[in-house]
Structures are given as structure tokens and as C-alpha cells.
Amino acid sequence: MEHVQKLLQQKTELESELRQLDNELHAHGVDRTTQLMDANGFPRSDIDIVAIRTIRQSLVCKQNDLRGLMAHIETQLIALHQTTHTADVTPKRRAFARVSIVTPHSPASEAGLMAGDKIIQYGTVTASHSDCFQALSAETINNINTPLD
Prior knowledge:
By secondary structure, this protein is mainly alpha-helical. It has helices spanning 2-27, 49-88, 107-111, 132-142, and strands spanning 97-98, 118-119, 121-122, 125-126.
């Protein structure tokens, strides 16, 4: 987050420098697009062409710097958002079955299951399986006498 704030501060500084350069151009009586040649194709004698071209060159460089900085800020903000979003969101696990009956002294009873409990995972079976009940059956058969996580 601090890195993005520093980049935003650099952006503010660059924008300030661009405004200052624009003001310098206006002090010379021109802007970014004012013609520097007269109608005959000769340099105008009423303006300081060297100073104006130097300012315009600085403006172009600063604009390119700003464009690059904005692209970098964008990638950093996206990365920051993805990191924050991933850290804040815990995966929702939805139940795919509900326990209706628990037989006393059964493995389910010994494991602490009670009627009404919701099952969100049974071994490797979760709600994302296309056929949960077939997967439950296969998981049970494959793990006879083996504890499930």
C-alpha cells in the first residue's frame, strides 16, 4: 500500500511539473500547438524559439513519464486489490448433505455427528462434485475401516 501511495505522490508531482511548464509556455505567449514559423516558413522573430522548443521537449518527456507511471500505478493497484481481495475472502464451503439420523455407538456417533449436522466435506467429496451421492458411496467403499478427514 505504501508503494502505491508513493507512486501516487510521484504522479501528483509530475502533474504539477506539467502545469508549471504549461505556465512557462503561456509566459512566452504561446501554447503547445502555436506555430513557431511565420507564413513564409521562417522562424518567428517575436518569440524565443529555443526556449519554447526546450519547454515543449520537457513537456513531451514529462507526459511520457506520466503515461508510464500511470500504467505502473494501474498494475500495482490491480495487484493490491487482488492481494487484498484474496486475503479478505475465505472460501465459502456449502453443505451438500444433512445428517438425519445417527445410530448410537456407531462410528458417526463416536465421531460426534448429531442429527441436523450439515456435511460440507466427506473425505475428498465436496459440494463441487457433480453427483455428490455417488461420490459419497464411492468414498465410503474406498475407505472402509479407514478414518476420513
